[in-house]
Amino acid sequence: MVAGALVMIAGVATAAPAAASLASRPASTAAVRELRAAAPDAAALTEAFAAGRHLPAGAVGGIRQGSLHVAAVRSTGVRWAIADFTPARSAPALTRTAFQDGASTGVFRSAPGQAWRLVTGSGGPYGCGRALPAAVRAAWQLAAPAGCQARPAASRRAAALARRAAAPAKTPADPAAIPTGQSIASIALSQVGVSDTPAVTSFSGVDCDPYTTMVAAQSPNADGCGYDQAFSLQNENEAWCSDFAKWVWQQAGVTADMGIINAGADSFYGWGASQGEAMPPDSGTPAPGDAVVFYPPGPVSATVYADHVGIVTAVHADGTVDLVNGDFLGAQNISVQYNTDVSLTSWASEVWNSDEQWVLVTPPGAAQP
Question: How far is CA 186 from the centre of its chain?
């Protein structure tokens, strides 16, 4: 905590359990006192989130249980809040996807006598606490995973080393002989560092990427987007974790029922169901090439909103995995990010929120016709 900063914290307005990363915090210290937020705060924050993200009326379903926390800096009287929002079940598919990849997180500020407003530059995975003062973030003990400050160039270098280390000593004469999972992992690693054009540091505006263009966006929209020099195409605006994962699978030779997969991360679950996969939450043995779909607490299905989908690129002896994640907000831009030595259950809770679930979707073993 910053020296001399006194922070008064308000917890969850709905008496919901606190996030796992917050649960171990002592009830009070010399600098921090736990309180409960007033119910009107939740409504005001929801309204500020919808306005700041330019979401249509009725798009926000509510605040995720355990995610609402409010703080007031005693020296200034300025209040801060963080909350994770869920889309309304009745919201159109494209509106629901706009909550993916950490875009559902809002950080808010309220000066004395002023209304709550969404802070410019906030958003991204909940655990990052992006745009919060250091004193408040420390008081809440947010996890701040390494990916919060990831830079595309550094991620690209690390992924290139991993790709070379995993390459077979002798490449088969027939590319079809390479297992699909191995091909998916290699292709995903080759894309690490690919970033939005134009560069952005929040989800409050455009989110322009090349993969959406290449897999045919659900709703093509290039307004405000730039040109991708590497792929020689116009970027399009869409939450793109699923678009990226779909493109990688296609490049590796997955063809069956790919029309099921769209911009919604939950569509990967739908694809797995079409192939007869069981996909129990928080279960299974990951393998390179698997898609990992992350879900909030509650039922899991192809029709339930999912937070994100990433790709497993390596599995280690201790059970941790390496992931490549499209549409991740780092220090400089939204990009394809490389996250290593991930324990899926603990990482999911640190990045998204407490009780986050994960589901493995397995690609076919070999390239398909």
Answer: 22
Other Cβ atoms within 10 Å of 316 Cβ, number: 11
Inter-residue contact 125 to 308 (CB < 8 Å): no
Query: Rounded to an integer, what distance in angstroms lies between the CA atom of residue 153 and that of residue 331?
Result: 11
Which uninterrupted H or E stretch holds 310?
A: strand 308-315
What is the residue extent of each domain of the chain? 7-140, 149-361
Helix, strand, coil fractions of the chain, as percent rounded to 5: 30, 20, 50
Which pLDDT tens digit goes with each residue over 309-336? Answer: 999 999 999 999 999 999 999 888 999 9
pTM assigned to the model: 0.89
List, for residues 203-258, the tens digit of each pLDDT value: 988 999 999 999 987 677 899 999 999 999 999 999 999 999 999 999 999 999 99
Please write the tens of the pLDDT for every residue from 78-117.
889 999 999 999 999 889 999 999 999 999 999 999 999 9
Are 83 and 106 spatial neighbours (Cβ–Cβ below 8 Å)? yes
* Whole-Å CA distances, 146 to 46, 49, 143, 341: 28, 26, 9, 11
Residue 242's identity, in one-letter code, is S
Which among 209, 175, 177, 160 has a CA at the least distance from the CA of 324?
160
CA distance 281 to 359: 5
Compute CA 179 distance to the chain's CA centroid, rounded to the nearest angstrom: 28
Phi-psi region of 25 (alpha: psi -120 to 50; beta: other; left: phi over 0): beta
Q: Which residue has the tokens 């330019």?
A: 54
Q: Give the SS3 label for residue 291.
A: strand
Phi, psi of 294 (to 5 degrees): -105, 130
